[in-house]
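A.,

Following up on our hallway conversation. Structure tokens first:
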């Protein structure tokens, strides 16, 4: 009888892991070496702005050109002003549609959401695919990439691949990257680390919880190799006290995995994490979203005007 009970528990745990999904981080997807053409199709934008929303701010079937899954998505505070400032032939704004959820693995009853692993995997695949497709169609288009929260982790992971020469587009086509509340933030300032906007002393939750692996949640730690050659073009914004990106290095103890993960899940909805449209990043009172809009607009204004045929 005891053996049957133990077997049943093992089956339940295995099924739990399988249903929650394994994390599939971006693999090497370098574009093949091709001669740079002298022009590109008239339908191609000069610049593509790739926006990756955060947890609970998108959906798998959202419209990438007119996103409406969450009308108060933080990234809309960035893409809206940019879309209004530049014509379509100059700038394509593409908001990655993905499930954007973070299921609580021990919720009883189950909360019905997609796991973090499945959500992050879908977001990464969709962002990578659209970059690869646009580069194939429009070889002279340049790119600006930005993401918030879970979207910042995805944007950062793709930027790290690009900086290592293994991404879907060449590094020299990337004008810049900004990650807001990046869960894999290290807080370091070495040659492969991003430019820190503002001053916080903590680290991302995935760094603090590195090595924890429960059904549907894999904490992957810092990005090996950082952002590589792309590092000088990458900006990291984090608000003091936001546990997603400013967790004390020892506060989320992997020994207490369940308690630590509960703290992480609660922090996804904490007031600090939800206020990047009002949190300031400099002495001038510039908010995180205003800073991102100004930064992106400057890059777009100065970007090349590729010939079209």
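Then the amino acids I'd put at each of the 309 positions:
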């Amino acid at each position: 009888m005891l053996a049957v009970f133990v077997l049943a528990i093992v089956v339940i745990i295995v099924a739990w892991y399988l249903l929650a999904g394994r994390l599939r981080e971006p693999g090497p997807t370098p574009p093949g070496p091709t001669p740079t053409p002298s022009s590109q199709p008239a339908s191609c934008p000069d610049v593509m702005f790739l926006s990756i929303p955060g947890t609970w701010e998108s959906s798998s079937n959202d419209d990438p050109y007119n996103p409406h899954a969450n009308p108060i998505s933080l990234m809309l505070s960035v893409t809206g002003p940019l879309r209004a400032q530049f014509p379509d032939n100059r700038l394509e704004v593409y908001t990655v549609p993905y499930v954007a959820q973070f299921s609580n693995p021990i919720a009883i009853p189950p909360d019905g959401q997609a796991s973090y692993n499945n959500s992050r995997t879908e977001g990464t695949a969709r962002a990578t695919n659209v970059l690869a497709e646009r580069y194939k169609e429009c070889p002279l288009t340049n790119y600006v990439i930005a993401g918030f929260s879970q979207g910042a982790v995805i944007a950062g992971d793709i930027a790290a691949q690009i900086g290592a020469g293994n991404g879907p587009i060449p590094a020299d086509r990337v004008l810049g990257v900004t990650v807001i509340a990046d869960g894999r933030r290290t807080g370091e300032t070495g040659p492969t680390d991003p430019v820190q906007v503002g001053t916080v002393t903590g680290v991302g939750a995935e760094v603090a919880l590195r090595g924890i692996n429960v059904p549907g949640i894999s904490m992957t730690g810092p990005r090996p190799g950082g952002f590589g050659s792309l590092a000088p073009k990458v900006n990291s914004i984090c608000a003091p006290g936001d546990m997603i990106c400013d967790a004390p290095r020892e506060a989320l103890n992997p020994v207490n995995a369940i308690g630590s993960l509960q703290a992480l899940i609660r922090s996804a909805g904490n007031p600090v994490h939800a206020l990047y449209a009002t949190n300031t990043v400099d002495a001038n009172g510039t908010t995180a979203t205003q800073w991102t809009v100004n930064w992106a607009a400057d890059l777009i204004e100065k970007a090349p005007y590729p010939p079209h045929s």
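Helices lie at 2-20, 76-85, 116-137, 150-163, 205-208, 257-267, 288-302. Curious whether your intuition agrees with the design.

B.
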